[in-house]
Amino acid sequence: MKNNLILSGLHLSLTGAHKEVVSTKMDKIFKHEEKIIRARIELERSSKSSSHENEFVAKGHLELKGTTITISSASDNIFKSIDDLVEKLDRGLRRRSRLKKVKRKQSSLQELPNAA
After folding, report:
1. Of 55, 71, 85, 97, which residue has the fewest beta carbons closer than 10 angstroms?
2. H or E element that contains 44
3. Is 56 exposed, middle or buried (0-12, 13-18, 19+ CB in 10 A)?
4. What is the reported pTM?
5. pLDDT of the chain, 116 residues: tens digit per residue
6. Are 69 and 52 contacting, i.e. CB atoms less than 8 angstroms apart?
7. Closest CA to 63 of 13, 1, 4, 14
8. Which pLDDT does position 116 carry in this prediction?
């Protein structure tokens, strides 16, 4: 199945290096979870903050069956923002998987006393 990755830049022109880094990092996410419908990555240069002149924000939206995981990461370096974003997305997927396992176990344990 082809990975659906949408990459966009806001107030920032995307270079080949940006596209290559995001696609290689997101391959890790797509291999980790095969139920991803679409991944949307937005890279933005934010000059609103007075303390940080050039702050880069990377936002990620993972569309899964039933839910959407939305995470953002900000830094003064665009590549650091991308790394942090992919790390946070990976943690979000692992947390979602762990919560599903706990939910399955709890539902089966609740049914046992009723059966007796």
Report:
1. 97
2. strand 36-46
3. buried
4. 0.79
5. 456 899 999 988 899 999 999 999 999 888 878 888 999 999 999 876 556 577 899 999 999 888 889 999 999 999 999 999 999 999 988 888 888 777 766 655 455 555 44
6. no
7. 4
8. 46
Residues 6+ apart with CB under 8 A from 78: 12, 18, 43, 56, 58
Q: What is the DSSP letter of 59?
A: E
Q: Which two tokens stand for residue 85?
A: 């974003």
C-alpha closest to that of 58 among 2, 4, 14: 14
Buried b (16+ CB within 10 A) or exposed e, 76-86: eebeebbbbbb
Q: 87: which 2 tokens?
A: 């790390």
